[in-house]
Design a protein that fits this description.
two-stranded antiparallel ribbon, alpha/beta, globular, 368 residues, Rna Polymerase Sigma Factor, Chain: A
Length: 368
């Protein structure tokens, strides 16, 4: 991982400024002479810049995004705790961590930070920008902000405007953290307990009824306590608490809430119409956090967009699991020349295949 440090004020959409900015990023492969082999990956809520680690199904040797062919860039989100300026960073003014005083940032602020990195890396046009969940929100916003930058974009399990449903999930998680802070126990312990609870709430939106039925069903039906699903929720909360900063979680979830490509642009549809890149929009049938109607809206509004729906029992986390399906769809999309049409899957609510429960596990999969 590398760090770009910009010792200059970085203006935020809320009118405040960060006195300086650090951006953590990873690059794989080399920029070719024509500078036309750039893949820009944007991560999810609690992800990091090492895309080859958390998205190894797509990034790596002999994978779709092979460093031998592409120059791959992934930067850590503004407000995160994995190297880019965020609540855990030192405030130059106070010489202490920002903590709860870190200002509100938006998806547009994150885009502007990415633009700074793009210019530093001397990148002109980007062959393909790809992101899922919060990362898909960023890629969509960026393609509107700089329409000529992307040749292709791929937006997975994301939306044009964060929904009341998604905001409500995030607020419930923030309430859990705030409840911990008001509990009277030491702050360091309180925020960690609150973050564990918040993550347990989030898991319910990342997965699906069928995911839990398949992976957490009891083999013995005579239990009255100590259920697998209960321990699973606690495990997921503890796992995130050990690796993530609670104030980053608060700020990033607020940033996701702020996502609205139509803000000050005359509305969502008018904003989406400005995208010049060829777009592949992928939805996941069982995603309850970003339901497929949101990807339909994206595909309908982007002038040159194709829509594909993946039938998966993993819910929103399908974007981390269904690597073979995503690879197949994206490889076919990138292989086509601009203006070439092909038969794309069109969503029909009456013809959706039913999820088929079965014993499943998610080894090595980290919800983001």
């Amino acid at each position: 991982m590398e760090i770009l440090k910009i010792v200059a004020p970085f203006p935020l959409e809320n009118g405040q400024n960060l006195s300086e900015l650090e951006i953590a990023y990873c690059v794989y492969g080399e920029l070719n002479q024509k500078k036309d082999n750039v893949i820009w990956i944007s991560h999810g809520l609690t992800g990091n810049a090492d895309a080859a680690d958390w998205w190894s199904g797509l990034v790596g040797e002999r994978k779709l995004f092979d460093p031998a062919k592409y120059f791959i860039v992934c930067s850590n989100m503004l407000g995160s705790c994995y190297g880019t300026t965020g609540p855990a960073s030192i405030n130059p003014s106070t010489k202490e961590a920002y903590g709860a005083e870190f200002p509100l940032v938006t998806i547009r602020d994150m885009v502007n930070a990415n633009i700074q990195l793009k210019e530093y890396l001397d990148i002109g046009r980007i062959h393909c920008g790809i992101g899922a969940s919060m990362g898909g929100q960023l890629i969509t916003e960026w393609a509107i902000n700089q329409p000529s930058v992307f040749e292709h974009i791929c937006v997975i399990a994301a939306n044009a405007q964060h929904s009341p449903w998604g905001i409500a999930f995030n607020e419930a998680q923030r309430m859990a953290i705030e409840t911990g802070l008001k509990s009277g126990i030491p702050e360091s312990e309180a925020v960690n307990l609150g973050l564990e609870t918040a993550r347990a709430i989030a898991m319910l939106s990342y997965r699906h009824y069928s995911t839990y039925k398949a992976s957490q069903m009891e083999e013995q039906n005579d239990k009255i306590d100590n259920f697998k699903a209960s321990s699973y929720q606690r495990y997921q909360g503890q796992k995130l608490r050990k690796r993530f900063d609670v104030y980053s979680y608060l700020r990033l979830s607020k940033a996701m809430d702020s996502h609205n490509v139509g803000r000050n642009r005359g509305g969502v549809e008018k904003a989406l119409a400005n995208i010049q890149a060829r777009a592949l929009v992928i939805g996941i049938q069982s995603d309850i956090l970003f339901p497929v109607e949101e990807q339909q809206r994206l595909a309908k509004g982007i002038p040159d967009a194709e829509l594909e729906i993946i039938n998966s029992q993993y819910g929103h986390d399908g974007f981390l699991v269904e690597n073979d399906r995503i690879t197949k769809l994206l490889a076919a999309f990138l292989a086509k020349r601009k203006g070439t049409k092909y038969k794309s899957y069109k969503l029909n609510y009456n013809n959706l295949a039913l999820l088929t429960p079965g014993r499943v596990s998610l080894p090595g999969t980290e919800s983001f």
